[in-house]
Amino acid sequence: MWKFLGGVIAAMLVMGGGLLIWQGMGDRPHVAASAPSASAANAAEPLATPPAADEATKEERRFNRYDKDRDGKIGADEYLASRHKAYAKLDTNGDGRLSFEEWAIKTTTKFAGADADKSGTLDAAEFATTKVVRKTRAPAPCKPDADD
């Protein structure tokens, strides 16, 4: 019986000590963990998701890609410059005109590459190789609750 009472008393002392520690932690203000130091960051794995740039920064970068002369304005020539480059890539003979063959070169090349038996037609297996493979985007990071 004394062993039982000794065990109960010991358990009560451990629980009482835990309660005191827990109450002591409640009196302190909540402090968020600080960011790891540069040396700790190098030793640790990289962040799962990089911090996202705010929309203003993204829009400023997009604007600057078009504003080639850096005058703070985008003229029609600057706005259409990327289209001119894309057109010039398609105009393979450089005559300033796009023939259907020049315009459809990617599709024509894709068809020719998929036509393994060079029959001029695609069977189901050959056609399956033309499937467009799209890059998947990482899911957007969750926003923390206002309570956190």
TrEMBL record:
Keyword Signal: no
Keywords: Kinase, Transferase
Comp. bias regions, Basic and acidic residues: 55-70
Listed GO MF terms: calcium ion binding; kinase activity
EF-hand domain sequence ranges: 54-89
Alphabetical list of Pfam families matching this protein: EF-hand_5
Compositional bias ranges of the Low complexity kind: 32-54
Segments for region (Disordered): 31-70
Name the record gives this protein: Histidine kinase
Source organism of the structure: Sphingomonas crocodyli
